[in-house]
């Protein structure tokens, strides 16, 4: 029999799973090593979903010496009308490695693969709670559901719809060794651990078949009314590429952002109903930083810097961007003795452009290649993917009485776009009105010729004026206000639009007006964005 020393932890459940305000939660622990004073450090991480954000799990000692809490942090992960997800991280100093227990307060078959795994590779099983007031409150097994304990998979077959009814699950996740082991504790005692799965299924009280750890898993299931079709992609959303598969491992590095893209499609949509896709769980493996990089985003270029010391036996002459055919795309131009440096135009070097509702995303990558053969490489494998993210929307303002400088909008330091708001003397738009002449004065009803212009040049995009309003003050949210353009639609009846030289311009005129009352000045403000044109 193999011999090992572990910290045995049992986190058991109590009476929250059946409550109508509680929708689910998990608890996990991580052994962090021995403290200088000889105690052990354990991190307990709890996630829970309640109806409101004021509730969260409270941990209390159930059996054994649970130690003392040295630090605790709580926060809200997400809040919607359906519920509030909170997370707590509690650091506990445990006096020894002996075991201790704690308590934490209809027509479509579905499969739920539960979030249960062990980073050490131990065998993980899931079961319903059996012991009242310790593992469960009601210890009730909801009808219409079946659990495969070995794969931690819950199968739904059928249940009656009741909008007031919630199916509460109080479950326990356990892990077992792959081979017979002996647990050695610091006080000199030992406990044998067997891998006889037959015994494990029949009893949980025998010390030779006890799990290495017990963790609670609580969640709720709502059963909706029947739908016309249970086929995924029809009414039920269907995951499509590039959505990761269930159980996929995603590699990540410390202090670097991880992009997990999820996409689903559905053929039919009901306005008054919410349909749920299958549940998927992905694991993010966070490792130390391997390649040290830095990305700088400017209005027309991306600059990527890679430290040469972070990879061995590799020179910039063996590195390339997606498309190196243009001379500006050579990584040898700007590189130096310490860094491989690339200055990449947003419109060249194979840079790919993507968009979501809020941003334009420009992506490229550095890969290895052989000089004599551009399709394979026998050098040390390197792939550095990088991107710059720019917000599509920005606000620009300009008053009749003072010329404003260019307004630069930015988002989290990812990159900037610059927009201009200018007046012109006529509809030819040849020469802007000199800022020295500001403040401008117009008689009521006289046309004012205005141009909104984006300095950034990006292929396959165009400037879109989403909204424009006027107020008597600099604050765009002040009252009174007058809407000129709303959701891209012209509201003011005097507006005339004019042809532009390129798609980065928007030209229009409108008749001068004033606010009723003692407001002689008018401040115009516009919300603009880039959209990809086809």
TrEMBL record:
Signal peptide: 1-19
Keyword tags: Disulfide bond, Signal
PROSITE patterns: ZP_2
Domain of life per record: Eukaryota
ZP domain location: 296-534
Pfam families named among the record's database cross-references: Zona_pellucida, ZP-N
Keyword Signal: yes
PANTHER family registered for this protein in UniProt: CUB AND ZONA PELLUCIDA-LIKE DOMAIN-CONTAINING PROTEIN 1-RELATED, ENDOGLIN/TGF-BETA RECEPTOR TYPE III
Protein name: ZP domain-containing protein
Species the sequence originates in: Larimichthys crocea
């Amino acid at each position: 029999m193999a011999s090992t020393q572990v910290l045995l932890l049992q986190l058991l459940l109590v009476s929250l799973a059946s409550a109508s305000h509680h929708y689910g939660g998990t608890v996990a622990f991580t052994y962090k090593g021995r403290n200088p004073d000889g105690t052990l450090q354990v991190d307990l991480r709890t996630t829970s979903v309640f109806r409101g954000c004021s509730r969260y799990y409270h941990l209390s000692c159930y059996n054994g010496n649970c130690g003392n809490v040295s630090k605790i942090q709580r926060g809200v992960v997400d809040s919607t009308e359906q519920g509030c997800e909170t997370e707590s991280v509690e650091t506990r100093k445990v006096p020894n490695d002996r075991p201790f227990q704690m308590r934490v307060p209809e027509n479509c078959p579905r499969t739920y693969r539960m979030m249960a795994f062990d980073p050490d590779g131990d065998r993980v099983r899931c079961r319903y709670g059996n012991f009242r007031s310790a593992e469960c409150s009601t210890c009730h097994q909801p009808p219409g559901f079946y659990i495969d304990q070995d794969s931690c998979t819950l199968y739904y077959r059928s249940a009656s719809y009741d909008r007031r009814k919630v199916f509460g699950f109080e479950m326990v996740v356990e892990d077992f060794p792959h081979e017979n082991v002996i647990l050695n504790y610091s006080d000199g005692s030992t406990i044998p651990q067997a891998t006889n799965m037959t015994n494990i299924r029949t009893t949980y009280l025998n010390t030779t078949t006890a799990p290495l750890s017990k963790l609670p898993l609580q969640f709720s299931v709502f059963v909706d009314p029947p739908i016309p079709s249970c086929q995924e992609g029809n009414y039920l959303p269907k995951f499509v590429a590039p959505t990761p598969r269930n159980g996929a491992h995603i590699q990540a590095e410390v202090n670097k952002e991880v992009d997990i893209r999820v996409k689903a499609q559905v053929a039919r949509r009901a306005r008054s109903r919410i349909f749920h896709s299958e549940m998927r769980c992905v694991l993010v493996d966070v490792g130390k930083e391997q390649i040290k990089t830095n990305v700088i985003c400017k209005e027309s270029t991306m600059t990527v810097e890679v430290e040469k010391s972070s990879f061995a036996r590799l020179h910039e002459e063996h590195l390339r961007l997606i498309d190196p055919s243009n001379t500006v795309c050579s990584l040898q131009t700007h590189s130096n003795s310490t860094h491989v440096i690339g200055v990449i135009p947003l419109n060249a070097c194979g840079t790919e452009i993507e968009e979501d509702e809020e941003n334009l995303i420009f992506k490229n990558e550095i890969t290895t290649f052989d000089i004599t053969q551009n399709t394979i490489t026998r050098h040390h494998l390197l792939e550095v993917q990088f991107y710059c993210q720019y917000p599509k929307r920005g606000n620009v303002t300009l008053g009749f009485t003072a010329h404003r400088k260019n307004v630069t909008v930015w988002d989290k330091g990812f990159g900037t776009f610059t927009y201009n708001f200018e007046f012109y003397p006529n509809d030819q738009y040849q020469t802007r009105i000199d800022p020295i002449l500001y403040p401008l004065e117009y008689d009521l009803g006289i046309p004012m010729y205005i141009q909104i212009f984006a300095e950034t040049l990006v292929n396959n995009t165009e400037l879109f004026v989403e909204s424009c309003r006027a107020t008597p003050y600099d604050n765009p949210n002040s009252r009174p206000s007058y809407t000129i353009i709303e959701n891209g639609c012209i509201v003011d009846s005097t507006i005339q639009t004019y042809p532009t030289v390129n798609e980065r311009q928007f030209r229009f005129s409108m008749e001068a007006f004033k606010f009723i009352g003692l407001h002689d000045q008018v401040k115009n403000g516009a919300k603009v964005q880039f959209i990809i044109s086809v």
